[in-house]
């Protein structure tokens, strides 16, 4: 009986240790997906947390420069009147431009009295795909033959 109890306790301990490891490791790599309007009102709450922030590039806010042979860009993500300053280093997506819909992946930091979202990855959606779908939907409509197929 004593040997059987030892085996059961050992099995329970191993299962508990593995379960704890899985939970601990998944919590350490948790990442939040938020819209700009969810993050901007409570910036201090999101400092040093892994985030994916979704918004639109504010027109006129993109600034790019080369520092130490590395491209650095800053821009503002906007959504529903809320704004978030973003800094990114490295290559950008081909579809990244003013008004583009972007998901920035990284961490919010507080330095020099300002909150800045330091993005290590940018994902930009391609609006042209959707604009073409809207035009194709109207091809059978009256007067559609008078409209150009491709926008200039």
How many strand units? Answer: 7
Query: Strand order within the widest sheet?
Result: 2-4-5-7-6
User: What is the typical, i.e. mean, pLDDT?
Assistant: 82
Largest sheet: 5 strands, mixed, barrel
The ordered H/E elements are HEHEEEEEEH
| SS strand fraction | 35-45%
**SS-based structural class?**
alpha+beta
Count the DSSP helices: 3
Low-confidence stretches: 132-137
Q: Class of the domain at 31-130 in CATH?
A: Mainly Beta
Task: Assign the CATH topology of the domain at 31-130.
Answer: OB fold (Dihydrolipoamide Acetyltransferase, E2P)
The CATH architecture designation of the domain at 31-130 is Beta Barrel
Rg from alpha-carbon coordinates: 24 Å
- Name the overall outline: elongated
Any idea what the CATH superfamily of the domain at 31-130 is called? Nucleic acid-binding proteins
Distance between the termini: 84 Å
Helical amount: 25-40%
Q: What does this entry look like structurally?
A:
The protein is built from three helices and seven strands, in the order αβαββββββα. It has 152 residues and is of the alpha+beta class. The protein has a domain at 31-130: OB fold (Dihydrolipoamide Acetyltransferase, E2P). Strands 2-4-5-7-6 form a five-stranded mixed β-barrel. The longest helix has 27 residues, at 2-28. It is elongated and about 75 Å long. The N and C termini lie far apart (84 Å). 14% of the residues are buried.
